[in-house]
Amino acid sequence: MESGRRKGLNGVLSSLSLLCVILDIQLDGVLGATHVEIEQHLEMGRKLLAAGQLAEALSHYHYAVEGDSKNYLTYYKRAAVFLAMGKSKSALPDLTRAIQLKPDFLAARLQRGNILLKQGNTQDAREDFETVVRKIHTTELTSLSPQLSPWDPESRELRADCYIRLGDPRKAIHDLTPTTQLRNDNRAAFLKLSILHYSLGEHQESLGHVRECLKLDQDDKDCLSHYKQVKKLSKQLDSAEEHIEEARYQEAIVKYESVMRREPNVPYYTNKANERICFCLVKNKMTAKAIDICSEAHQRDPRNINILRDRAEAFILNQDYEKAVEDYQEAREFDTENNEIREGLERAQKLLKLSRKRDYYKILGVNRSANKQEIIKAYRKLAKQWHPDNFREEAKKKEAEKRFIDIASAKEVLTDPEKRQKFDSGEDPLDPESQQGGQGRPFHFNPFESGGNYHFKFNH
């Protein structure tokens, strides 16, 4: 019995020994050919990837990773194939493994950051981007690594990509600009610079860079396409501003509306168009629409003093002086040195103060944009309605006299260009106190003080 057990155990041990020998032979074969075979797989993978045969390339990179699980580059290269196949989820573990094996592998961090950002993991993506920026910046300061020299275009392009992802296009432009000189035929950098300037609303700078790209290759499809886009928008913007200079405000509005239709997804151009349309509507004295458009523009760009100034002017046209003062005060907080804003605020404050005394526009019931014909028509109607001869009772007659005096004063001021200009600037030309800085006796025109009865004939 005991001898049978020993024989069985010896048989099992012999089988295990044989299995170990076989496995050892197989492993020894694999490990012995590691460097040669891995290099062959990597080379084949590279060639197949370049040829667009992604599935075949991937199989070779699988062999390379299995053959050398400690090489960060094999993981990175396989991740590149996954990305080319549109399988970013599969690429993520390989990029993470590459970073674990080599924490300062910045290209892998940038790629992983891009994937994380697309997946909505903004916090981890930001950490990767900031690590790249911090590492490159530190290397520039210490100059310890020849691989990341400040004059190395690759390191600058890498950091520029991170700044773009971090939402800092200015720093990206700063890094990319030298690379156009550091690398021959760097059309990609010129195009990227053009796109960055375009996104910031700097269409002239954008044109300059894309033209440099086309100088290197006039048939470059990407640069040619972007050039046409920038050129067309630039022409519309320049044309709109020319219309404004020539006081052709309605035509400028049409141009800026076209700009918004062309670039609805670039905030700068939408905001700029709304700002200038707001300005044009005020100039055309389209008060209600101006207030609406200016308010929309203010929501989009709340610190823009030009929008606040123009909306304040629209409120003045609408005789809403308190809101005009509020807008000018807000604009003043953003720019305390701007003389135009300071003068506008002073004028709005004067008009508010004046409106609490006598507002000649309100007396006649006309808008501030009313022309002389509209003013005279309103005057005649009210003068006929409030002429004192129309009233018998003493109290009503006295009230009518007061109203009639105000109506006559309003007509006198608003039909005289010089007096109207003074009133629009916040001064009452019929009030000596307003004219002389508070000195003198208040004066009001009264057609009834010289005695006798005044009779008016109104022609219709």
Automatic annotation (TrEMBL):
InterPro entries: DnaJ_C3_Co-chaperones, DnaJ_domain, J_dom_sf, TPR-like_helical_dom_sf, TPR_rpt. Residues 416-452 are annotated as: Disordered. TPR repeats lie at residues 72-105, 305-338. PROSITE patterns: DNAJ_2, TPR. Residues 359-427 form the J domain. Pfam families: DnaJ, TPR_16. Residues 416-425 have a biased composition (Basic and acidic residues). Coiled coil: none annotated. Residues 1-32 form the signal peptide. This is DnaJ (Hsp40) homolog, subfamily C, member 3b. The lineage of its organism: Eukaryota, Metazoa, Chordata, Craniata, Vertebrata.
